[in-house]
Write a structure and sequence with these properties.
The structure holds two protein chains of two kinds. Helix content of chain A is 71%, strand content 0%. Chain A is mostly helical. The chains are: A mainly alpha, B alpha/beta. Chains A and B meet through helix 2, helix 4 and helix 5 of A and helix 1 and helix 5 of B.
């Protein structure tokens, strides 16, 4: 008690500036202690959550694998598969469980093909996960919309084409990028029709992603590129030029030559690159007047 | 009859479980490694008849696993490599290190079974 009184007296007798400094130091020490305690609490909470998610993941991994190998010999769903569907359908009402199921299914969708991939798609449909994705598609939060479109693309859900198409000119690049990738991944060259209505620019990176998606298609029968070479959207013209170059569209020679007079320098230059790649020296002479101008 | 022993090195736990289930159904004994380091340890301690390995893995890559088997352990254990689209150069490196076969992801587990059986029948 004496020490406490002594300290109090000492504090009262000290000049204002030192008093102020002592108060600041005490407040800072208390703040640091509070922050350390709250950080520890947050960390342990996150650890608990991680363990919970890991537990769910292990549970659903086993369940999904069991589902995939329980198919009846007739090719129809077996009783075991029906019971697994019912269990997952009930469980996914809880958000962390739903996220775990989606994580497990997504990680398999990226790695397996053929019958297995079809079975995973069926499971996605039958468990009603598609309905949850459709709800998120209408969310006001852009990141939820982008994630929902990505999920629908991964599980090859064709029936939401109209809803997803609405997002091709979304102000957030992440949303419109996902919408455009969805269309190309699922509807192949036909999916490129979004280019007709695209008002915003396609970034170089996104153009490469679209090209990669197209090049991975089994059916490489390309659609008519000509209208996009005449688009008012410069990035669409540049993307169309890349398509001409990659798919060797020799029949578009006249349109390419016309592009040498395009008001945009980038288009002119890329058109000349494509012409040189496809026709070599043949058009070299026709390039010269445009460069002089 | 003794079952063929397979070491499966794959960091995607769901895929590992799926392939383990499928391979065990065909009568193989499967040992799972979640990373390259565990794969090397399993190969050293269990002397498998076949190694299935992904290319991109934590600690040691699939390429390092193949190199360890061929150059350090001096073993001729057949190796099938899993690669992703765009990893063609890695696949070439894997072959130059001594891989026997490769499969590009996404792949069909049924096709993998055919390849595994073919390797054992030769």
């Amino acid at each position: 008690m004496n020490i406490y009184q002594h300290l109090l007296e000492f504090f009262n007798e000290t000049p204002f500036l030192i008093k102020f400094a002592i108060i600041v130091v005490v407040v800072m020490v208390i703040t640091i202690i509070v922050l350390i305690i709250s950080l520890k609490m947050i960390r342990s909470l996150l650890n608990i959550k991680d363990k919970e998610i890991l537990g769910y993941k292990k549970e659903y991994e086993a369940l999904v694998v069991e589902y995939l190998f329980s198919e009846a010999q007739t090719g129809e769903l077996s009783d075991k598969q029906h019971s697994i569907i019912l269990k997952i359908k009930e469980d996914i009402k809880v958000i962390p469980r739903r996220k775990s199921v989606i994580t497990v299914l997504s990680s398999l969708m990226n790695e397996v093909s053929g019958e297995m991939s079809d079975a995973i798609q069926t499971l996605y449909h039958k468990t009603g996960l598609i309905s949850y994705a459709k709800v998120r598609l209408k969310s006001k939060k852009w990141h939820l919309v982008a994630k929902a479109i990505g999920e629908l693309r991964r599980f090859k859900i064709h029936e939401v084409q109209d809803e997803v198409s609405k997002y091709i000119n979304h102000p957030r690049v992440e949303v419109r990028k996902e919408a455009q990738l969805y269309l190309v991944h699922l509807f192949k060259f036909k999916g490129l029709n979004f280019l007709d209505d695209l008002e915003l620019p396609l970034s170089e990176w996104h153009q490469l992603q679209l090209l990669e998606a197209l090049l991975n298609l089994e059916d490489q029968k390309i659609c008519d590129i000509k209208p996009w070479l005449k688009s008012a959207n410069i990035s669409v013209v540049l993307f169309a030029l890349k398509l001409v170059k990659v798919y060797n569209q020799f029949e578009l020679k006249d349109t390419l030559v016309e592009l040498l007079s395009h008001p945009e320098k980038e288009v002119k230059l890329y058109a000349s690159v494509v012409l040189n790649k496809l026709f070599g020296y043949e058009v070299a002479a026709s390039l010269k007047p445009n460069y002089i101008n | 009859m003794q079952r063929h022993k397979i070491v499966l090195a794959e960091d995607n736990s769901t895929l590992s479980l799926l392939l383990k289930y499928r391979l065990e159904k065909e009568g193989f004994e499967v040992l799972i490694a979640a990373d390259g380091k565990s794969a090397v340890e399993l190969v050293e301690n269990h002397h498998p008849d076949l190694v299935l390995t992904d290319i991109m893995m934590p600690f040691y890559s699939g390429l390092e696993v193949i190199s360890h088997i061929r150059n350090k352990l001096k073993k001729e254990t057949p190796v099938i490599v899993f690669s992703s689209a765009g990893q063609e150069e890695m696949v070439l490196k894997a072959f130059s290190l001594g891989a026997n076969d490769f499969m590009t992801k996404p792949f069909s587990p049924n096709e993998l079974i055919i390849r595994v059986k073919r390797l054992f029948s030769v």
